[in-house]
Amino acid sequence: GAGVSQSPSNKVTEKGKDVELRCDPISGHTALYWYRQRLGQGLEFLIYFQGNSAPDKSGLPSDRFSAERTGESVSTLTIQRTQQEDSAVYLCASSLNGGGDGGELFFGEGSRLTVL
Amino acid sequence: AQSVAQPEDQVNVAEGNPLTVKCTYSVSGNPYLFWYVQYPNRGLQFLLKYITGDNLVKGSYGFEAEFNKSQTSFHLKKPSALVSDSALYFCAVRLPYTGRRALTFGSGTRLQVQP
Question: Which of A32, A33, A43 is best to mutate for the B interface (most B CBs within 10 A)?
């Protein structure tokens, strides 16, 4: 497809389980972003990848959260030992580059995570 | 640090009336400013951006925004609201070349246009 693709669209898990969320960015986009949106709230930055540079992990809320990206393609966000406060929609976005040109972000439809 | 504030959780306006959704920012330097819209059950979509140049920028769906450096604001406007404009609107900011490379988003403003 032409857009950012995220999977799964919905995930229900039990507290303490690990989950993995996947993002397929738009082909050719070198920058990839993960955000979290809790119910009724704004977007919370998690992590940013730009080409082969070291990722900006400054938004990850705890060491239970990690993310990887393979080259300039797929990214996975992993949450270990999930807690109920992790329940949110996890949004992935990509952009042509992450530099100073102010390029717009293209968002996926998100992965809704519910931790019981 | 860069931050952006949307002081109104919700804005209500009648169809056909002008609308304004407020945004103020706090960054050192010359920011890039953005508006995104989130329709129900859909992903965020880019509306418009200010990079440099003319303070009034025009975007999708008839929206425009005015960059005001002295007031550090970037309010979103539309001359005549449509019911279909009802959605969640996010202002975002980033500094070019320095600081956090990802966009910092405001908390969002829900726009409700009544018929």
Answer: A43
